[in-house]
Amino acid sequence: MSAHPVRRSLERDVLPYIATARQLRRQWFYRVHVIFGYTTDFVAALTAVGVTAPLLALLSSPASTSDAAPAPTLPMVLGSVPQWLYFPTLFILIAWIVLRVAFNREEGQKRAVLAKSCAQMLREAEASLPATLSQPNPMPGITELLEKKIRPTVDRNIQENAWPWLPFADNIDAEVSQQLAALCSRYEAEWAPVEAPAGRNIA
Predict the structure, then answer these.
(1) Quick one: angle between helices 86-105 and 28-48, nearest 10?
(2) Domain-by-domain residue ranges, the chain?
(3) HSE on the CB side for 6, CA within 13 Å?
(4) Distances (CA, A) of 180 to 138, 140, 190
(5) Is the pTM of this model over 0.70?
(6) What would the pLDDT profile of 3-42 be if each residue is shown by its tens digit?
(7) Could you give the C-alpha distances from 94 to 45, 52, 74, 87, 168, in angstroms and in order?
C-alpha cells in the first residue's frame, strides 16, 4: 500500500525543513551574535550601577564601526588593569578582536538576524501543523505552508548564506522519523483516502 500523499509531503519536505531550522541556533555566527548581545547588555548593566572600565567599553563596542564616540585604544585598556592581569587581558583582547574581525568579514550580524527570523518562522509553521493535519484533506494547507511560508523563507536565507545546507542538514533523519510517527499516529486516521486514477484507493 502506497503512503498517503500527506505523509510523503511531511516526510520529504515539511519536517526536514523544520528539523534543519532547529540547527540554525548552533551555527557559529548565531552563537557569536548572542555573545556580542550578552556582552553589550552586561556592560550596559554595569554602566547603570556606575561600574565602567575601558576594557568593558572595548568588549561592548558593536561590530560595526559607525559609532560617533571614539573607541577605546589598546594601551588605554591595558593601562587600566592590574599588572598581574596584563597578559591574560592581552590574550583575551586579541582573541576577541580576531573573533570580531571574522564576524564582520563573514557578515555574521546579517546572517544571525536572518537565521533567527527563519528559525522563528519555521517554528510558527510547525505550530500550525496540528490545525492543518486535523482536516480530512490536509494537502491544500500543507502545500500553502510550503509554498508561501517555508520555501520562500529558506530560499532567502540560502541566498544570504544564513542557511548553510542544500537543502537539509545531514543528521536529521531520526528526528524527522520520530516526529512523523507522532503526527501520523495522531492525525492520519482522520485523512480522507486518496483514490488512484482507476478508482483504486492508494491510502
Answers:
(1) 130
(2) 5-24+121-190, 29-108
(3) 27
(4) 15, 18, 15
(5) yes
(6) 899 999 999 999 999 999 999 999 999 988 888 777 767 6
(7) 24, 20, 10, 10, 36
